[in-house]
Amino acid sequence: MNAIKITGLRKTYGQVKALDGLDLEIPTGSVFGFLGPNGAGKTTTLRILAGLAKQSGGEVELNGKPLIAFTGNQSIGYLPEEPAFYPWMSPLETLDYIGSIFHLNAKDRRTRAEELLELTGLKEVAKRRVGGFSRGMRQRLGLAQALVNHPAILLLDEPVSALDPIGRKEILEMISALGKECTVVMSTHILADVERVCDTIAILYQGKRILQSGREELLQHYATPALELEFNNGDAGNVENIEKELKQCPSVNGIKREEHILRLSVNDIAQAQVEVMKVILAAKLSFERFDIVKPSLEEIFVHLVGAEGGTK
User: Fold this and answer.
1) Long-range contacts formed by 304-310: CB under 8 A, 24+ apart
2) Do residues 306 and 272 make contact, with C-beta atoms less than 8 angstroms apart?
3) To 10 degrees, what angle do helices 106-119 and 135-147 make?
4) From CA 308, how far away is CA 312, in angstroms rounded?
5) Cα–Cα distance, 100 to 89 (Å, whole number)
6) Which residue in 10, 14, 91, 226 is deepest, having the highest Cβ count within 10 Å?
7) pTM given for the model
8) Is the pLDDT of residue 66 over 80?
C-alpha cells in the first residue's frame, strides 16, 4: 500500500498556480526524494500533507485514508525549512512541550526527549536556551521535534540545508536509517543528498510532476555514455588545448570541465575511447585517470527540467 497518494492536487494563490494537477504515489517505507527548482511546488505540497495549508482541488490519501482524517493526527511528523521555537526554552523543555501536545505522559516525554537529543547531537546543549542557537542547531532540534510522536509519515523540507558537511553527513545517515521505521518524504535542492539516501525520486516543475522513478531505475534509464579524464594539476594550460581538440572527435557530444578534470558525453563509448586516446597520445599528455562513468542525478535533473522549460 502507498503511504501517500496524491491525485490532481491543485493550489492557487490568486492568479499563481503553485500546484497544477500534481499526481504522486509514495510507497510505504520509502525514503522519497522531492526535487524541483524554486517555485516548483515542493514546500506547498508538504504543507498540504502536514495539514498546514488547504488544497484548491484534488485528492490526498495517507495510508489509504483521506487527508482530512489525518489532520492533527499523531501519525505525521513535519520539519519546515526554517523551524522556529520559543527562544527562552531549552531543547529539553521544547521537546517536553511538543510531547505534551501529543498527550505523552511526563515519564515518556522525558525519555523520548533524551533519546532524540542524543540522536540529533544536541545532548550537550540540552539545557541551553534555544535563542542562542545557530541555524544548524535549530535544524537539528527541528528534526528532533518532528520525531517526538514516532510518526508513520515524516515530512522534511530542506532538512540539511543549514548544516556544515559533518552535520549533513550525520543527519543524512539518520534519515536513511529512519526509512526502516517510517515513510520519509524529503524535499531538497541538494541533488547529491537525494542520490545518497533516497530510494524513490520525483521531479516537480511548475506545480506538476514531470518524472517519478526508483533511484537506480532513473539513473539506468537516463544513462548516457560518458568518459572522465583526470590530468595532473600542473597541466592546466595543456588541458585547455586538448579540450578544443577533443570537441572535434565525431563520437564526443559535449565536454564539461572542472579544473583538470574533463567529463565527455559521447554517442559511442567504444569509438570514443579510441578517438580520445589517440588525441591524448598525439599531444604527449599524461593523465592520472581515464574512466567510463555513470551520469549523476544532477545531470538528469538539469536535462529534464531544462527540456520542460524549453531551455534545452
Assistant:
1) 304/203, 304/205, 304/210, 304/211, 304/222, 305/36, 305/37, 305/203, 305/205, 305/210, 308/205, 308/206, 308/210, 309/205
2) no
3) 130
4) 8
5) 15
6) 91
7) 0.78
8) yes
State the Cα–Cα distance between residues 200 and 216, nearest whole angstrom: 9
Q: Would you place residue 237 in the very low, low, confident or very high pLDDT band (cuts 50, 70, 90)?
A: low
Torsion over CA: 286, 288, 292, 300 (sign): negative
Question: What distance in Å separates the CA atoms of residue 94 and residue 170, rounded to the nearest whole number?
Answer: 22
Instruction: Please state at what angle helix 165-178 crosses helix 135-147, rounded to 10 degrees.
Output: 10
For residues 304 and 225, give the distance between their C-alpha atoms in angstroms, rounded to a whole number: 17
Q: Is 22 helix (H, G, I), strand (E, B) or coil?
A: strand
Angstrom distances, CA of residue 14 to CA of 11, 17, 37, 56, 205: 10, 8, 21, 11, 19
Rg over CA atoms, the chain: 23
CA 46/CA 240 separation, integer angstroms? 45
Domain ranges (residues) in the chain: 2-213, 224-293
CB hemisphere CA count around 182 (13 angstroms): 23
Right CATH number for 224-293 from 3.40.50.300, 3.40.50.1820, 3.30.70.980, 3.40.50.1100?
A: 3.30.70.980
pLDDT, position 310: 42
The answer to whether residues 311 and 244 touch, using CB atoms and an 8 Å cutoff, is: no
Tell me the three cell numbers of residue 250.
Answer: 565525431
Whether 189 and 158 have beta carbons less than 8 Å apart is answered as yes
Query: Residue 86: which pLDDT band, with cuts at 50, 70 and 90?
Result: very high
Classify domain 2-213 by CATH architecture.
3-Layer(aba) Sandwich (3.40)
Phi-psi region of 59 (alpha: psi -120 to 50; beta: other; left: phi over 0): beta
Residue 138 has pLDDT above 70, yes or no: yes
